[in-house]
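Worked Example 4.2. Read the sequence first, then its C-alpha cells.
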Amino acid sequence: MERRIIKATLDRIEDGIAVFIVSENETSLEWPENELPDDIQEGDTVTIFIRMEKNLDETREGKKRIADKLEQLRKRNGK
C-alpha cells in the first residue's frame, strides 16, 4: 500500500467538476464538485491524502474479461 499527501489549490469549478492545481508540479487534478466539503471555495488550498492499493481480484477479473472478449472477436472473425 502506498500513501501520498498532495497539496493543491482549487482553481475553478466547471460543469460540476472541481479543477485543482497540484502545488508540487503544477498539474491539474479533477474531482466531482458534489464530493467536495461544503466550505471549499475557489482559491482555497487543500491537503489531499491518497492511499493506493492494487486490487488483485478485480485485476484478474478484468484481465479475464478482456481475454474472453478478444477470444470472442477472434472466433467471430474466423481466426
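Now turn to a second chain, presented in exactly the same format:
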Amino acid sequence: MGITESAARLAAEADLKERATHATHRTTEAAAGARTAVGQAARTVRDHTPAPVRRATAVAAMAGRAHPRQILLAAAAVAGALFVLRGRRHRK
C-alpha cells in the first residue's frame, strides 16, 4: 500500500466521521423539536381535560405503579378475550 492510498483512506475516514457527526447533530435537533411538540401537546390535553378525569387518571396511574403485575395480567386477559371474540365473529 502506497502513501497515496493511505492518504486517500485517511481522507475517506475523516469524511465519514464528519458525516456521522453531522447526522448525529441533525438527529439531536430533531429529537429536541419532537420533545417540544410533545410537551405542547401534553399541556393542551391537560388544559382541556376536566379535573375529575385528571384525578381518576392519576389514581389509575398510581394503582398501576403500585401493582404493575396485576395491570399487565388484566391487560393480557382483555387482549385474549378480544382475540377470542374477534375469531368467533369471523367464523360466522
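Notes for the reader: Residues 6 and 84 are 64 Å apart (CA to CA). Helices lie at 3-48, 51-66, 68-91.
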